[in-house]
Amino acid sequence: MVKNQIIYIIGFMGSGKSTAGKELASLLGWAFIDLDKSIEVYTGKTIPEIFSQNGEAYFRDIETQLLRNPQSQTNTIISTGGGTPCHSDNMDFMLGTGLTLYLKLTPVQLKSRLSESKGDRPLIKDLNQKELLHFIEEKLADREQWYNQSDIIVDGMELYINQLHSLIVSRLI
Question: First CA to last CA across the chain, in angstroms?
Fold first, then answer.
């Protein structure tokens, strides 16, 4: 039984967390929160603006604060940022308060997806293709120690939302 009927979708940037989260929330009839969008609304700045004007530490503090917002703790799907589980004991918090779902992709799959949206992502915006793949490989290797603690791990490239919905519903009962 999911403790507070909340599902946290985690994974590397570009893994499809927001898309899957919206679809799952719709199928379940639950609320959907995109944590990055919530941060932008809260601060009145885009994620790239926050990183350039205030730095990553400030971003991570706001991210943790909004993740733990009690208003989002029932019948809600939360799509987290790629680094959310890796900071401020956020993974322990998510494991203790809901069901965690990791959308897993390989570095090559992620590079293919991220090549099209680099400008929107402050950590990769200035990287060429070789540097992007190296960055993904290093970050993913570091972050998987948190990601792999998830309650459910699915292949993000072979994601069938109806099958995932059935799996989650079976966990909610």
Answer: 6
